Amino acid sequence: MIRAMVMAAGAGTRLRPLTFSVPKPMVPIANRPVLEYTLDNLKRHGITEAVLNLYSFPDLIKNHFGTGEKWGMKIHYSHEPVLMGTAGGVKKAEPFLKGDTFLVMSGDGLTDINLTELIEFHSERRAFGTMALKAVDARFEYGVTVTGKHGTIRRFVEKPRWGDVFSNQVNTGIYVFDPAVFKLIPKGKPYDFGHELWPKLLQRKARIFGYLTDHYWCDVGNLSEYRTAQRDILDGKVRIRLPGREIRPHIWVGDGTIVGPEVRLEAPCLIGSHSHIARGAHIGAYTVIGNHCLIGAHANLQNSILWDHVKVEHRVHLQNCVIGHKARVSKNISVYEGAVINISR
Prior knowledge:
By secondary structure, the protein is α/β, with parallel strands linked by helices. Helix content is 19%, strand content 30%. About 3% of the residues have low confidence.
């Protein structure tokens, strides 16, 4: 039985200040923690047991996901008081994963990759390790890879300098491994897949392969990618179902939400459950409003993302903003161009 290791220990430093109060895997995208989409995809492909490694705000993740019953899964946890690195975290979870081929997934990336095809690709090639790859346009913050015949990995550089760029196929952080890999990962010390394990496997001429996916993948590693992921979901580029009811084409409204008179809703937009949009408000395209939010009369929200329990008072103008949980935006003010407001717990 294939089990999964979901990397959920990321500190999310590039997403600050949003991650000052929540761990990176719990950052909401289209009103759901990004980690939920990873678990949904695992379940969709018949993988129903996973271990999550935890570091930042571990109780927030454990309290939300519990045993995984709500997602039709069985979830275990591996707490890392000190970060062990990507491969080191997997080594710490060896008692859960050993004995069979296993999958490694990112808990803070957004993807609808076909995991069934990935695992079949790995099995058909009798691979020791398989790395899911994605062709991207001129973004080299990730490991880049060259593959040969039948997908064999020929070259790999983690986070290269511009002069080292030789491919647009990047490492997505989604892997399939033979359990023998545990023998190559040192115990009790930080160890990294990209900088240490994959180069070691390449040097040893192990049977390692790259699986190039044409499915959606976004790292959600910084604020720009976070905004891109929201837009891509609203544009239907990701194979997921949005929460709420589609009251008009590309306008979704959650249960219990009240939309007052003379409110303008521009597609695409998403409004969560049990929120209230007061008279005359204007909700512009690519705006996402969370659950239990209050939007005051004649407020104007353009291309903005509001998390849960946000209160926007009347005649506030927000443009290209991200507003964190429980924030309050006072009446008659305007906030523009990429402002991020977050309220710590």
